[in-house]
Specification:
The structure holds 2 protein chains of 2 kinds. Chain A is of the alpha/beta class. Chain A has 11 helices and 12 strands. Chain A has one domain: Aldolase class I (TIM Barrel, Alpha-Beta Barrel), CATH 3.20.20.70. Helix content of chain A is 36%, strand content 28%. In chain B, 20% of the residues lie in helices and 28% in strands. The chains are: A alpha/beta, B alpha/beta.
Chain lengths: 253, 206
């Protein structure tokens, strides 16, 4: 049986893991390789490294950080942040990433999704969507949630999927860093609209939040950062909790 | 054990190399048959479209000669599909044909997400499989694919996504995994270690 995935996100700036509230106020959480390896041992299903300031600073995700994270990690590794071209993606794959996450660049040039999917396969292309609630709809923001694009999140997810994206990484800007729970309405709307897996992100605070997003939100995977970094909810305990509530989980092996 | 990993331009090989090194083997990337010399086993990795296996046409005869001589061969994901006669994903292309049948798209069902991405269990494990020996019941592996191999006598484990499909095939020293053992944590590393052991026991090289 296909299990739901629990994913640890490492927001990296200048080689260190940071985590803020609502994309700002970044506070240092630690060494990315050490954290990734700890999560791997604890049974995390996947790791995502986001170079959070790469787009704004015009920097590429740091190849050195990726190499260190990938060194002893035998589970999938996704890298995002500042990937704007085939060359940027190649540098990230060469450093040991299994998938790339595109955000601002995919909005600017959707054909980059198709070109990456053709070269590396759809399974290697994740389109990250940052969305903010606006009445009954969700608007897409780019450039680390600083720029409104005028796009609707559900429509953009569908288009990205049609272009060849293999997964959608969906972040609620409203919930990011607040620990008030995932936006299950947003997640369910996108999950129902596309035939590819949706990773819910933003707002994880308690074990129940994960249960909610896997049931009400119909998420295929759920991502969190700070609740793992500060070891409030060890990965194994979270997964056992979810399994005991009927969510298919990969336990132990 | 020298493990030759055939680079035919389909996806990146960094993870596969790291994983074989982690289980004590000496992985080596090879791009043409002249570089097979001395290899104790061959690996066809790969992600992406079956069309990309066009890059294996140049080494097909050498791979067949190696397996005929008893050198173990492991196909991973797309590499596993190539062990068969072909795939509906690229109808004009021929596989190695070491295993009978053609690969086909996962049957579509309402509400079923395709590609099949994530960790899934290995079911119906054949107790005679050398690759899967000692694996605990309920072991999971990381999958990411839309096409599946045909079920047949070579199937030694199945996995279900809507319908069951072969997740591990094995016939003599020719084996394939639909999942990515290099990305499947401890279970994946154990499977790769079993393949390296198969190469050691075979005692032949290219």
């Amino acid at each position: 049986m296909l299990t739901r995935r629990v994913i640890a996100c490492l927001d990296v700036r200048d080689g260190m893991v940071v985590k803020g509230v609502g994309f700002a106020d970044l506070a240092t959480a630690g060494d990315p390789a050490a954290l990734a390896h700890r999560y791997g041992r604890e049974g995390i299903d996947e790791v995502i490294v986001l170079d959070v300031t790469a787009t704004l600073d015009g920097r590429r995700a740091l190849a050195q950080t990726i190499r260190q994270v990938a060194a002893e990690l035998f589970i999938p590794l996704t890298v995002g942040g500042g990937i704007r071209s085939m060359d940027d993606a190649r540098a990230v794959f060469d450093a040991g990433a299994d998938k790339v996450a595109l955000n601002s660049a995919a909005l600017r040039q959707p054909d980059l999704i198709a070109r990456l999917a053709e070269r590396y396969g759809s399974q290697a292309v994740v389109v990250a969507i940052d969305a903010r609630r606006d009445g009954a709809r969700y608007r897409v923001f780019s450039r680390s949630a600083t720029t409104e694009t005028g796009r609707d999140a559900v429509e953009w997810a569908r288009e990205a999927s049609d272009c060849g994206a293999g997964e959608i990484l969906l972040t609620s800007i409203d919930r990011d860093g607040t620990r008030s729970g995932f936006d299950c309405t947003l997640t369910a709307a996108v999950s129902d609209a596309v035939g590819i897996p949706v990773i819910a992100s933003g707002g994880a605070g308690t074990l129940d939040h994960f249960l909610d997003v896997f049931t009400d939100g119909r998420a295929d995977a759920a991502l969190a950062a700070s609740i793992f970094h500060f070891a409030e909810h060890p990965v194994a305990r979270l997964k056992q909790f979810l399994a005991s509530h009927g969510v298919a989980m990969r336990l132990a092996w | 054990m020298t493990i030759a990993i055939v680079d035919y331009g389909a996806g990146n090989l960094v993870s596969v190399i790291k994983a074989f090194a982690a289980v004590g083997a000496s992985p080596r990337i090879v791009t043409d048959a002249t570089q097979f010399a001395g290899a104790h086993a061959l690996v066809i990795p790969g992600v992406g479209h079956f069309e990309a296996t066009a890059g294996l046409d140049a080494t097909r005869d050498a791979i067949r000669a190696a397996t005929d001589a008893g050198v173990p061969l492991l196909g991973i994901c797309l590499g596993m599909h190539w062990l068969f006669e072909g795939s509906d994903e690229a109808p004009g292309r021929s596989g190695l044909g070491a295993l009978r049948g053609r690969c086909a798209h996962l049957p579509r069902e309402a509400g079923l997400k395709i590609p099949h991405v994530g960790w899934n269990t290995l079911d119906d494990v054949d107790s005679g499989s050398r690759l899967l020996a000692g694996l605990p019941q309920g072991a999971t592996a990381y999958f990411t694919h839309s096409y599946v191999a045909p079920d047949g006598p070579a199937t030694v484990a199945r996995t279900s996504h809507g319908t069951p499909f072969p997740s591990v095939v094995e016939r003599g020293r020719i084996a394939g995994t639909q999942f990515h053992p290099e990305k499947s944590g401890a279970a994946g590393l154990q499977i790769l270690a079993a393949f390296v052991a198969m190469a050691r026991d075979a005692g032949v090289s290219c």
